[in-house]
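Model the whole thing, not chain by chain.
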Amino acid sequence: MSIDSGALAASTTQQTEQQGGAHRKGKPALSEGKKAERRLGLLLCAPAAIIMVAVTAYPIVYALWLSFQRYDLRFPADRAFAGFANYAAVLTSEYWWRAFLVTMIITIVSVAIEFVLGLALALVMHRTIVGRGLTRTVVLIPYGIVTVVAAFSWQFAWTPDKGYLAAMLPEGAAPLTGQVSAILLIILAEVWKTTPFMALLLMAGLALVPDDLLKAAQVDGAGPWQRLTRIILPMMKPAILVALLFRTLDAFRVFDNIYILTQGSNGTGSVSMLGYDNLFKAFNLGIGSAISVLIFIAVALIAFLFIKIFGAAAPGSDEGKR
Amino acid sequence: MATTVESRPATPARGSSKGAGMSEGQKKTWWAVADLVVLLYALVPVLWILSLSFKTTDTITDGNFFPRSWTLDNYAQIFQIGLFTAALRNSIGIALISTVLAVVIGTMAAYAIARLDFPGKKALVGVSLLIAMFPQISLVSPLFDIFRGIGIFDTWLGLILPYITFALPLAIYTLSAFFREIPWELEKAAKMDGATPLQAFRSVIVPLAAPGVFTTAILVFIFCWNDFLFAISLTSTSRSQTATVAIANFTGASQFAEPTGSIAAAAVLLTIPIIVFVLFFQRRIVAGLTSGAVKG
């Protein structure tokens, strides 16, 4: 992956050079000060690195190992090497493919809607001439609110006889119990919660578009739509790709909203729901670990596609290059 | 060049995308309408759960957006359930400890990344990026097994560890972005006066970095407060169950009791800290969220 923290260092060197070359002389290889700096750097990073590796890398390797075993928590004595049997079981199961399909649909549709809505919201927050502080404050509420809380709000709202939204539907409609309508409501809950985050990231990109340029384009006769598609969006491309990458991977993990809204019933479960149910309803660690590994691979593929094909720069990677 | 051609009224720059033929007043109205839409968008679901929490048992299923008769019973009720009080205590304790630890560890790492030259810096930035994208469900099965093995399943520590881990990328990116804005000449001056790098860090940089650290702490707290997947997978009793899990498990006092009111009241309590942060630190949160992600 194109992670290039050298750029981080580059920006700091630039700063030091601006101060008239008072920079510590780097020529004599590893002076005492340089060595101390390296030691301090490693020392300061060690706790973060150790925790992150211990809590993610080790378990995922352990999951890989478990995924090749027959390991049912109800029959721990039967634990044995099973080769690819768990993967075969998962990949030939209609549950996995249905969950995968549902997850992909939720991810693609909600990220697409969030992008359009988020862009509109970013434009409002960036350009509004009245109540700018107010809009920027209220959009943080969906971002900050606990997902489970928001999910309950939607669940109650769509429950017949209880909710104000269900009351607007025709008599007898129970949208949370149909597959298509329930998936739409899950998407709605996701979109509501995360559009503000998307909008804030996009607004930061908007701030980089110079007003003068837009004014000049307007003088030259460019309409609002042309200014958006020819100037604003191209200039925002790095911000857009970062926002899309992060939201796509985040949406792929969808769990909280589904757990509260439908419990994954009627074919609305995502891959995360499947992994959870497998562990806590089927108690099968071998299969559960195979699911873990498959989800990990899927996420790695999505990230790879974004970074290689769309050229999304990982945040932090081109920092200071402006 | 824009100024030479600019013969229009002095202000159209702001609302220009919509405002070709509009007067100033019309434009204001247009933006006020847009603001109102945003306001309703953000607040309606929150007001709905607030309204539910004040409804009486016999009106809670009437489907009205506003309560017809008001009561505080729902709030009184959830505090009578020992389960929720314990869960709230767990949530607050776990989120605070995780926040403090993640911010301390993240500050150290971010300082090193922003300021020091050392081998492995690239690797650390890369690892934090990978973790920011990591599918948390992939960890649930293995952590469940590992934590049971080493005896920290269903303990505070068993949640604090994953929370710190997933908060660290956020902390490191946000903090290193803030750290890059700090006037480093001051640190150099301190070093010239004979301070060691560590002293310079402690007495010069830490006070300057405090606003950024504080902002990061808010973001990390919101993240920990919000978690559901780890909390529901890695806990099993009120010893460490957090409030999000407790709410999801509310079933009402008896099998036939309606838990909606209790859930709504508990949900409102969980939302209060978020509303407080948002109202008082709006600017900081926006700066923190955007600084890490889209600089440059």
